[in-house]
Structure formats: structure tokens, C-alpha cells
Design brief:
9 helices, alpha+beta, 16 strands
Length: 453
């Protein structure tokens, strides 16, 4: 009798092994959390791979449909003669003979006024597999004047000018995707543009047939250019006064280049945008006329880029960056419930919970490719929350704590979705949210006696 009493006292004072303590369980859960970073990183690699695939497809579509448009013209081109003298000694008479040799060079003059109205229409029916690249049709109307070609500023004598060999040139990228007749009207007379070989590796050159230009003549010009293009459209302000207006059925333009659009007339709605530019010659660091060669002016362009503010892969990548937070907080909730309720959750069960959380991101990216990010996020989050709710009920053998877990996960996924959608306030909202999450953890864990575990 006494021996049995002593055995009961001894057994009641025996402490559980270290492996059964909360400290050991915390260490194992922490190691598991770090281990789950491996599949999470593989998911992030998958997102980047799919994003690269989209970029490759977009590049292939642009190569066949039409690439970005960079327009540069019109320019008045007029040839003139320069003379070089060479002294030659006659072998018989020993007299020095001066030979005069003429060389043809070219003077280039930019317009006095240049007006451009461009209509950009996004094309939605160009698809490659599951991808829908940003391609468009651009209809451009140009008009303006050339006035008083200033040969004297180039130190060119008027008697050396070849007046009957003048032409108009246009430099532009994406020549293969021009879809209009290449004609220019000069003082109501029509001239045809033809493609010319050029040493320029960036711009292609179009040039009219020759016409007669008279001194101090005013040339009124107008022409149209229709393109298939993609990504962006840019112009160079060659006019002494250059005005441009762009209208497009696109809701997220990015205004690019060295000159900003007019804020007073710029308008962006959910379906379209309108933008105007007015650039004076004093606003740009280049002249109105050049001798022999036009400098490279592509760095002084302006225009618009059609963008997706945050595409589906960027949103998926941003969501995956919060994966460690989701796994860590979910494990923390389960651990606190295990500690408070005295329920035992095996490390294998933690592993299953972690893998379910990882599956959220594979579901998200696969559904996003066939739907919108919002719909995909809702479906993936709902699937994971329901799966963990049912799994928690089977593990904990009750409904109160599993419902709390499901509610916590729903709040957490909703919080992360809000952060992903924000741009300017993402850091602020995220910091405030994490502060409240930390406060909640401190509140629910305040009564746990860690010294006895």
C-alpha cells in the first residue's frame, strides 16, 4: 500500500521530456517554417519563368505585328556644291595648275511649324495562347510649314545651292508596319515617299522624289501615316513650334521622354486618355538647320507608353513575397491554439498545413492566367481557407478553434490583397497592419505560463 502511494507521488512529479515541451515544439515549427521557404522559392521561380514567357511572346508578337514607333520628321533636304582646290605641277612645262573640284553635300532644315494629331486604338483581338500583348493601330496626321531656309546660318552661298534637287525626308522606326500610302502634299502638290538606304541603325529613312525649291519659298505640307505598333509611340520636336495631341482608348498611359504633356488639357478616364504637347525651339537644345549631317536627336523625344500598371505576374510576385508572413502567422495561430487548448498537433500535421499554404500561390498563378487577379485571388484564398478549416476540425476535434483559424486566415489574406492593390500607401498600411497583428498575438499569449513548459 505504501509502495503504491510512493509510486503515484513519483509519477506525478515526473516532468515531461524536452521533446514534449513547448520550447521543443516551437523550435521544430520554426525549422519547418524555414524549410517551407524552399518550395515557396520554387513557386517564385515559377512566377518569374511564366513572366519571362509572357515577355518572349510579347516580343514575338511585336516583331510580326509592329514594334514601337519613334517618329522624326519631316525635314527639308537641299543639296549644294562645295569646292576643293588641288595644286598639280605639269611635268613638261613645270607650271603649277590649280584644279577645282566640286563635291555635293546636303543642308537640312526643320519645319517652322509642325502640328501632329494622333489617334491610337488598342487592338484586343491579337492573342498568342493565353497572352494578350499590348498592340495598337496609330493614325497620325501631320501639317505645318517650312519658311526661309537659312543658308546664311550655315555659311552656304546661294549660288552654290542646287535648287532643283530638293526633297523631303522622314526618319522613323518600324518601317515594315506602315499601313498607309506614303505621300506628302507640298503646296497642294503630291509627292511619293520611298524607302532609302541609310547608315542609321535605329531610324529608317523615307524620301520624296526631287522638286524645285526657290529662295525664301514657303512650303505648306501635310501627310498621313498609319502604323501597326506596340508598347509606345514617340516624336521628336523638330518644329520651331511643335504641337502634338494624342488620343487613345487606353486607361493607363505613361508619359515618357524629355518633354511633359500639358497638365491643363491632359485627361485620363477608365476607358481612354487625351494629352497635348506644345514645344518651342527655345525648349530644346538643338538648332533648326544642319550642314551635311543631322545629329542623333532620339534622346530629345516625347510621347506615351501604353502600360499595364501592375500585370498579373507582378501581382503574383508581390503576393508570394508575403508567403513567409502567411506561413509564420498561421503556424503561430495553430501553436497558440495548441498551447491554450492543450491539444496536441503533430509536426506532420504542421507540414500538411504549410504545404496547403504553399498551394495557394500555385493556384493563384494558374487561375490568374485564365482570369483576373482578383477572381483568382478570391478562389485560391477560399480554397485554402476551406481546406484548412476542414483539416483543423478533424485534427482538433471541435469547431470553435477551427472557425477562429479560418477567420484569421480570411482576415490575413484580405489584408495582403489590400496591400498588393495599393502602390503609394502599401508600406504605411502594411506597417500598421503588422503592428496590430503583433498586438493581437501579445494579447492572446499573455496568460500562457511559459515557465512550466
Amino acid at each position: 500500500m505504501e509502495n503504491s502511494i510512493e509510486q503515484q507521488k513519483t509519477s506525478s512529479t515526473v516532468k515531461p521530456s524536452f521533446l514534449q515541451s513547448n520550447t521543443a515544439k516551437m523550435i521544430m515549427v520554426g525549422i519547418l517554417t524555414l524549410f517551407l521557404l524552399i518550395p515557396l522559392n520554387l513557386v517564385q521561380d515559377l512566377i518569374r519563368e511564366r513572366s519571362d514567357r509572357k515577355n518572349d511572346v510579347t516580343h514575338d508578337v511585336a516583331a510580326s505585328w509592329g514594334e514601337n514607333i519613334h517618329f522624326y520628321g519631316p525635314i527639308l533636304k537641299i543639296p549644294y556644291k562645295t569646292y576643293s582646290e588641288t595644286a598639280i605641277v605639269d611635268e613638261k612645262s613645270r607650271e603649277t595648275i590649280i584644279q577645282k573640284k566640286a563635291t555635293i553635300q546636303y543642308a537640312y532644315f526643320f519645319p517652322t511649324t509642325l502640328e501632329n494629331k494622333t489617334q491610337v486604338k488598342k487592338v484586343d483581338d491579337i492573342k498568342r495562347g493565353i497572352y494578350n500583348p499590348i498592340v495598337f493601330k496609330a493614325n497620325m496626321q501631320f501639317n505645318g510649314t517650312f519658311e526661309n531656309a537659312a543658308f546664311e546660318k550655315l555659311n552656304i552661298k546661294l549660288e552654290d545651292v542646287i535648287w532643283d534637287k530638293a526633297s523631303i525626308i522622314i526618319k522613323t522606326t518600324n518601317l515594315k508596319s506602315i499601313k498607309s500610302d506614303l505621300k506628302v502634299s507640298l503646296n497642294k502638290k503630291t509627292y511619293t515617299l520611298e524607302s532609302k538606304s541609310d547608315e542609321d541603325n535605329y531610324f529608317g529613312t523615307l524620301e520624296t522624289e526631287k522638286f524645285i525649291y526657290t529662295p525664301s519659298q514657303i512650303l505648306d505640307f501635310n501627310f498621313k501615316m498609319n502604323y501597326n505598333g506596340s508598347d509606345n509611340i514617340e516624336f521628336i520636336p523638330l518644329g520651331k513650334t511643335t504641337t502634338t495631341s494624342i488620343d487613345a482608348n487606353w486607361d493607363s498611359p505613361s508619359f515618357i521622354g524629355s518633354f511633359s504633356a500639358n497638365d491643363t488639357t491632359k485627361e485620363i478616364t477608365s476607358k481612354k486618355f487625351h494629352a497635348d504637347w506644345k514645344i518651342l525651339h527655345i525648349n530644346r537644345p538643338f538648332s533648326q538647320q544642319y550642314d551635311n549631317k543631322i545629329p542623333n536627336l532620339k534622346n530629345y523625344s516625347y510621347g506615351v507608353k501604353l502600360i499595364e500598371t501592375v500585370d498579373e505576374y507582378q501581382q503574383n510576385e508581390r503576393a508570394s513575397k508575403y508567403g513567409f508572413l502567411v506561413i509564420g502567422l498561421t503556424f503561430l495561430v495553430f501553436f497558440l491554439i495548441q498551447t491554450i487548448s492543450k491539444k496536441n498537433i503533430h509536426i506532420f500535421q504542421y507540414t500538411m498545413i504549410g504545404l496547403a499554404l504553399i498551394m495557394f500561390y500555385t493556384l493563384l498563378i494558374s487561375i490568374t492566367e485564365h482570369s483576373s487577379f482578383t477572381i483568382a485571388y478570391s478562389i485560391a484564398a477560399s480554397a485554402v481557407v476551406i481546406m484548412l478549416l476542414l483539416y483543423s476540425i478533424s485534427v482538433l476535434k471541435e469547431k470553435k478553434f477551427p472557425l477562429f483559424i479560418a477567420t484569421s486566415l480570411t482576415v490575413l489574406y484580405s489584408f495582403i490583397f489590400v496591400i498588393i492593390q495599393l502602390e503609394n500607401y502599401a508600406l504605411l498600411v502594411g506597417s500598421i497592419g503588422l503592428f496590430f497583428i503583433l498586438g493581437a498575438v501579445m494579447y492572446f499569449s499573455r496568460k500562457i505560463d511559459w515557465n512550466n513548459n
